[in-house]
Amino acid sequence: MTNSDIIDILEQTAKLLDLHDGDPFRIRAFSSAAFSLDKVPVSLTEQYVAELTKLPGVGKTIANAVREIGDTGHLAELDGLLAQTPPGVIDMFRIKGLGVKKIKTLWQELGIETLRDLRQASESGRVAAIKGFGEKMQKNILDNLAFLESQAGKIRMDKADRLATQLRDELSSLGRVEISGQVRQRATEVDTVELLVESDEPVAVQSFLNGHTGLTQHRADSSPFAWRGQADGSDVRVAILTYPANQFDQQLFIRSAPEAHLIEKGPTGKTLLQTALQISPHNPEEAIYAQTGLPFVVPEMRENPQAFAWARQHQTDDLISWDDLRGTVHNHSTWSDGQHTIQQMADYAREIGLSYFGIADHSPTASYANGLSAERIRQQQAEIDQINADYAAQGIAFRVLKGTESDILGDGSLDYSNEVLSSFDYVVASVHQTLSMTEEKATARLLRAIENPYTTILGHATGRLLLAREGYPIDHRAIIDACAAHNVVIELNASPYRLDMDWRWIEYAMSKGVWISINPDAHAMRGLLDMHYGVYAARKGGLTKDRTFNAMPLAGMLVWLEKRKKG
């Protein structure tokens, strides 16, 4: 159990206690603890009760609950609350804008116990008629239901990657096992986790899988060569396909590309699929492309309809990779809502091979995230100066850069005075509040921020949260064109919750000469590793290392930032 898993359980317990009119003090205890523990840098599962009670917001009741979760993976109190609550009512918590009170009203006054009931009640106008709801809330519910339905059965890239890797390791005793399908293509959202097993004994493979305690087979969807079902604790589909050695490599290729890619014809007149089915066994994927007369395309790019055009103009080595990254510029610390200090974050950045670390803690409007006042900015920058002086004294060629994540306010202005903004090495400008906007309003708001001479980087451009919240609509071309005109970098927010900007707009941004920065938006040391997911998404869009902002070496970055500040 990770800290995030434990915090999720505490939050859900607080919500369901509130839903069932539980003790207000107990509700507050669970809710406060979930908020406080989000910033704790230690692993909660490794702490004893006595150690847990020393943490902020944790009394003996919560400490015992955390210990129970860590030991068993469950909380009996939550299990009891879940047993009293219809699953559909629990699903309502996923709808943005519906809090405990409104869900309780829908459940108790209208008798709504499923999302289907909620849709019908909204479509008939019954929800709008309830006091405190109205037409706007009813429309919001319908819009959110439509979005949730479109995302059903999917998981994010990071969860799919972990599940696929876990299954591959657990199945390794069967022989050669490879991850294929959407996970190998690094899809941002995955509806099927697929693996291939090399074996001449499909019955033995099926027997092994059906004896695996973490897997449940859907027999109607399966066949002797294809096990289909689910992994425990996940709604996503799992497919494990068995192929003999003389078909395995061809099938690994075929199962790792969409149909539109496979039917591409080369000058030979054959498609990639035809070549793959006819090529001699054990040939690498590169040989399939070569024999078709087409340039090789890496698995990540095969979903990209412009992949062949890109491959005719570039080499695979031109694509950005983890090893090309030299630094990171959008991160948070304990000064705002991060879990680790600037020193800890910077040292970890050095440990993973980077040569600069940029802090971008929140601005005052983000009060929920402990946004920094102008006075606290001065204090933080003094701390950064000392850290850099210490590095220099030790002969360490590493630099902490002074940045901020300034909120883009409702009118498009930034959340500090010009005097404060001018004190930073760079400014990440992001929208965090008032996300319900028309395309016209959202675009105008971003354009004004981009035109601000202090804006260096446009952060998570659409505000989307994958599988949870649709981004606000924007005119992507207008935004990218403006960034090109004002020399503003566009962030590819590498958090697997966001991956925003969408990879489909990378080609257009590069064509306009816009830099793309792969930013982890890290709130803890290991959050820096989320740049792996950003690299995957960037490669899907064909991002080259020479257009990746944080692939710039330290000396080049310092020159670029200084030159831009001078205009």
| Spatial sequence of strands, sheet with the most strands | 8-9-10-11-12-13-14
Q: Can you identify the CATH superfamily of the largest domain?
A: Metal-dependent hydrolases
Mean pLDDT: 94
Q: Which architecture name of the largest domain does CATH use?
A: Alpha-Beta Barrel
Q: Can you tell me the CATH class of the largest domain?
A: Alpha Beta
Structural class: alpha/beta
Proportion of strand residues:
5-15%
Number of domains: 4
| Biggest pleated sheet | 7 strands, parallel
Task: Give the helix/strand layout.
Layout: H1 3-19, H2 24-37, H3 49-52, H4 60-72, H5 76-83, H6 87-91, H7 100-110, H8 115-123, H9 134-151, E1 155-156, H10 157-170, E2 177-180, H11 181-184, E3 189-190, E4 192-198, H12 202-210, E5 215-217, E6 226-231, E7 237-243, H13 245-254, H14 259-262, H15 272-278, H16 285-292, H17 307-313, E8 327-328, H18 342-351, E9 356-362, H19 374-393, E10 399-407, H20 418-421, E11 426-430, H21 439-451, E12 457-458, H22 476-485, E13 489-493, H23 506-511, E14 516-519, H24 531-540, H25 554-565
Parallel strand pairs: 4-7, 8-9, 9-10, 10-11, 11-12, 12-13, 13-14
Antiparallel strand pairs: 1-3, 2-4, 5-6, 6-7
Helix pairs in contact: 1-2, 1-5, 1-7, 8-9, 21-22
Write up this protein:
With 567 residues, the chain is an alpha/beta fold. It folds into four domains: 3-151, DNA polymerase, domain 1 (Orthogonal Bundle), CATH 1.10.150; 153-256, Beta Polymerase, domain 2; 258-302, no CATH class; 322-566, TIM Barrel (Alpha-Beta Barrel). Helices cover 44% and strands 11% of the residues. It has helices at residues 3-19, 24-37, 49-52, 60-72, 76-83, 87-91, 100-110, 115-123, 134-151, 157-170, 181-184, 202-210, 245-254, 259-262, 272-278, 285-292, 307-313, 342-351, 374-393, 418-421, 439-451, 476-485, 506-511, 531-540, 554-565, and strands at residues 155-156, 177-180, 189-190, 192-198, 215-217, 226-231, 237-243, 327-328, 356-362, 399-407, 426-430, 457-458, 489-493, 516-519. It has a seven-stranded parallel β-sheet with strand order 8-9-10-11-12-13-14. The chain has a five-stranded mixed β-sheet with strand order 2-4-7-6-5. Strand 10, helix 20 (418-421) and strand 11 form a beta-alpha-beta unit. Helix 1 (3-19) packs antiparallel against helix 2 (24-37), helix 1 (3-19) packs across helix 5 (76-83) and helix 1 (3-19) packs across helix 7 (100-110). The model has no long low-confidence stretch (mean pLDDT 94). This is DNA polymerase/3'-5' exonuclease PolX. Residues 327-410 form the Polymerase/histidinol phosphatase N-terminal domain. It comes from Fibrella rubiginis. Residues 1-303 form the DNA-directed DNA polymerase X domain.
